[in-house]
Design brief:
Blueprint lengths: L27 H24 L8 E8 L4 E2 L2 H14 E12 L2 E10 L2 E12 L2 E9 L2 H4 L7
Parallel strand pairs: 1-6
Antiparallel strand pairs: 1-2, 3-4, 4-5, 5-6
Length: about 150
């Protein structure tokens, strides 16, 4: 009883919720904390890749579904193609907060664009070290008015 779990070379890098049941000697809070940190790591990798317009660094599952107010991408390949279009309007992304619950993360963001600042939220589902789905929420009205000119 009183055994503790240590990460070894044979330990999985990422644990899924279903794997918690097969590691009974590990306190659930420890596994959930490790999972939380892993989800944050994947989300930060995703956001960094978007900031840098680096499609090859996106930690997306090949069948990821990414839905946003202006587009839906039904695979990692289609999201990667759309990233270049987004990079043309995006100036910066500031993370306000990451809220994690199991395999799910909500990223509260401020995205500075050619249209001005756009408050944004993304519900990101991570499983086995990959983003499997994203649902983005924002008010698209600033984008409908066209780019702001520099004055």
């Amino acid at each position: 009883m009183g055994e503790t779990w240590e990460q070894t070379e044979q330990s999985p890098d990422f644990l899924s919720v279903s794997e918690i049941d097969i590691v009974p000697s590990v306190p659930a809070f420890l596994i959930l904390n490790v999972m939380r940190e892993q989800v944050i790591q994947v989300v930060e990798q995703y956001l960094d890749a978007v900031r840098r317009n680096d499609a090859s660094a996106l930690p997306l599952h090949p069948d990821a579904v990414c839905e946003f107010p202006t587009n839906t991408y039904r695979s990692a390949a289609s999201f990667q193609q759309g990233l270049d279009q987004f990079a043309r309007i995006m100036k910066s992304i500031d993370v306000i907060r990451l809220i994690v619950d199991g395999e799910h993360c909500v990223a509260i963001l401020n995205i500075e664009t050619v249209f001005g600042p756009i408050p944004f939220a993304e519900h990101i589902h991570v499983a086995n070290g990959e983003v499997v789905s994203i649902r983005g929420y924002c008010d698209p009205r600033p984008m409908l008015g066209g780019p702001k000119s520099s004055a």
